[in-house]
Amino acid sequence: MSKELLVLIGYEEDVLETFREMASEYQLVSEFEEADFSKVEIVLGWDERLVDVLESGEHQLKWIQLPTAGVDKLPLDLLAQEGVRLTSASGMHTHSLAESIFGMLLARTRGILQSVEASKASRWAQEEIEPVVLFDKSVTIIGAGKIGTEVAHMAKAFGMQTTGVNRSGGQIDGFDKVYTNDNLAEAVADADVVINILPLTPETTGLFNLSLFKQFKPGAIFVNVGRGESVVTADLLTALDQELLSFAALDVFEEEPLPAESPVYTHSKILATPHIAGFMDDYLGTLRPIIEENLQAFIDREELPVSEVDLERKY
């Protein structure tokens, strides 16, 4: 065989055999060191050593399937230069992220966080806690894609009013109204809860700064499960200290792992989780249909149907 398929994702042999059967014209290789990049056309997974391969220009790479959703750390310009297509796992985290968002929200609004702290001190804190009802509250979801739409549907189940923000501003099922990115300040002005699910691009880096937080409804809750670098952490802390915001739930951070000395850990108005919002109990099983659908399309010389990355737009 003159073509190779390199699999860098830890599937068991039965799954690898399925890939072999689907890509019968390819020799399947499962170790980076065993790959001959003068023959490898497809890579399922990612390894930093692929950067050296791409930079060498001496390869036959045509398509890389990532096992993750984020692409901001990858050499997208280099991939474009070398003519290598890229697909991500964007969308597979839809349910886990939506559940995590509401888990963090309810921990705050229903007094669960405060109760946990009081319980640690063997204190009955009923009089200290002032629960909030989400019913009829307004939520603005910035990044009204697959995940944002699932969050909107879940918000509707709680009886919330839903606003979305995306590039087009076109109406989307589950949203009462949708704004374009250019009208972000207007979209957040009346929201009781603002949720960021945006990918990281040059346009979204540092987007959530003190200037924007001042446009929020006073006392709003801010949730970030998008990318840490889209939030200026120092500005977020200032907004919380100045009571522009009442609470922030963060799963992603400008620097990860979050340093032990970070004030985020100890701030009384922050719930920080260690980038786990997208975790699920059967990650590889959930990823597999995405791989198989794209692999079959590639073999059939069709458009890659699931989450192909626009290398120019960088998401």
Describe this entry's structure for a reader.
This protein has 315 residues and is of the alpha/beta class. The protein has 2 domains: 3-91 and 282-301, NAD(P)-binding Rossmann-like Domain (Rossmann fold, 3-Layer(aba) Sandwich), CATH 3.40.50.720; 93-272, 3-Layer(aba) Sandwich (Rossmann fold), CATH 3.40.50.720. It is 30% helix and 17% strand. Strands 8-7-6-9-10-11-12 form a 7-stranded parallel beta sheet. Strand 9 (193-196), helix 8 (210-213) and strand 10 (220-224) form a beta-alpha-beta unit. Helix 4 (94-109) crosses helix 6. It is elongated, with a radius of gyration of 22 Å. The relative contact order is 0.13.
Provide keyphrases for this structure.
315 residues, 10 helices, 12 strands, Rossmann fold, 2 domains, five-stranded parallel β-sheet, alpha/beta, seven-stranded parallel β-sheet
